[in-house]
Structure prediction request, 200 residues.
Amino acid sequence: MKARQAIEILAANRNDAVVVCALGMAANEWWAATQSEDSFYMHGAMGFAASFSLGLALALPNTAVWTLNADGSLCMNLGCLLTEAAQAPANLRHFVIDNGVYQTVGGLPMVNPRRTDYAGLARAAGIRSVFAVKTNTELERELHGMLAEPGPSFMSIEVQPESGFLGTPPMNYEGPEMKYRFGRALERKLGIKVFGPQGY
Prediction:
């Protein structure tokens, strides 16, 4: 299975979930598949997609929140699994695209590639609902079961490493524009107030 195939399956089953994407491959592929502005695309903060989405899940308990992570980003912040398990928000789903490489910098190999059991790490951290898939068929089947149960839940999705540097182009905005597009999208989507009269 390729990353784009996995992302497209996730996108087709997203419904109204708010999605936070790790920088690089995960963010680029999600943008290419969805063009969604009610998703947040991390820039310059490797490892913190999970922490950001956990905060959203706790602040918006009636809204489904997804973390779209990558193996490299997860390894930068493995402690996020402990915090997710401790806080246990029922609306949080954590997906990790495991390609065994740092795709964004040209496919350099991950530390301990294909020997680290990310689903096992999540289970050991205390997350009870954990899944690991390697094929399109497994992803389709397990995803439906995962979304039918309360979270927090975690899924490791093994995909093929792909050669090339940033083969899928990123979205064409970042920084302050990212903040405002995402905040305004949440205001429209959820009917909430994100920004005050002065824009922050």
